[in-house]
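pasting for ref
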Amino acid sequence: MSEVQYFRAANGLTLESGKQLRNFNVAYHTYGKLNAKQDNVIWVCHALTANADVFSWWTGLFGKKELFNPEEHYIVCANVIGSHYGTTNPLSINPATGNPYYLSFPEYTIRDMVKAHQLLASHLGVTSIKVLIGGSLGGQQALEWSIMANKTIENLILLACNAAHSPWGIAFNESQRLAISTDRSFYAQQKDGGSKGLKVARSIALLSYRTYEAYGATQLESSDEKTTDFRASSYQNYQGEKLLKRFNAYSYWYLTKAMDSHNIGRGRQSITKVLSEIQANTLVIGIENDVLFPTTEQEFIAKHIPGAQYKLVNSAYGHDGFLIETQALTGLISNFLKESASKKIIKLIQTA
């Protein structure tokens, strides 16, 4: 079992805004060993409230007997800036005050997340990545990384993400932040501040993660006589309470802001131009009925990355399908990597 490890950046981290995080730490997990050729690195970028222990939340795709296993691969998953799980975040101590940052934590972007993980990669001796993979917020990171360090990524796998966060997605995130801000305790400078608001925010988020069909299949009443205490109501409350036990409102607030910042065209020529310059072998996967990241967004990415493949996964679960439909994903990703390896061999023969 992999244990969480910590990397401390000697010079802190300078953010895209110009602000600096001193005493900057990254929490991460590794599985397996880096081989002599250093060509077996699988780097995972996690989603919004996930942690660095990818074996605990992407089972069926990552594990001892799964497609990505520690016997063959050196798997790295690092926790993002601002998250609750060990990387420097709003509950970390601000060296300037000796107290937690709370709402004085600087806003950061997807590019800042990537920059932090690139520092970790250097620390680990990782100079090239065989497979860079991520879904949702993780897909946004993986896409940015493939642009910021174009020649170091061999295979890029993007699931249920976009090239720039949409007005629709930003509106969902703002609605969640509005819910958090109505909880007065959010401004009280305490570790459990905003908990009631966070519970409501999670309830809102779930409606974007799942579908009408999914709720109909799992939360439908067995009796026609009920007038209250519905299963769907209990489910929303349960999921809200579940998040409260493992996360905090301040991290959630800043992470949703970082997601809103995602736009690969910012400061560059254009989104399509940037996509056209990606050199990695790319597989883009959309999830059927994804309300939050509609498949048109993945189709757009695949259309503009040279040679990219686009695949659709059928799922009644909507956005959460990228975490649930692991059997289908294993088949698609396995075939993609076999094709990529074949192309690499042919290219080597042609250039020999």
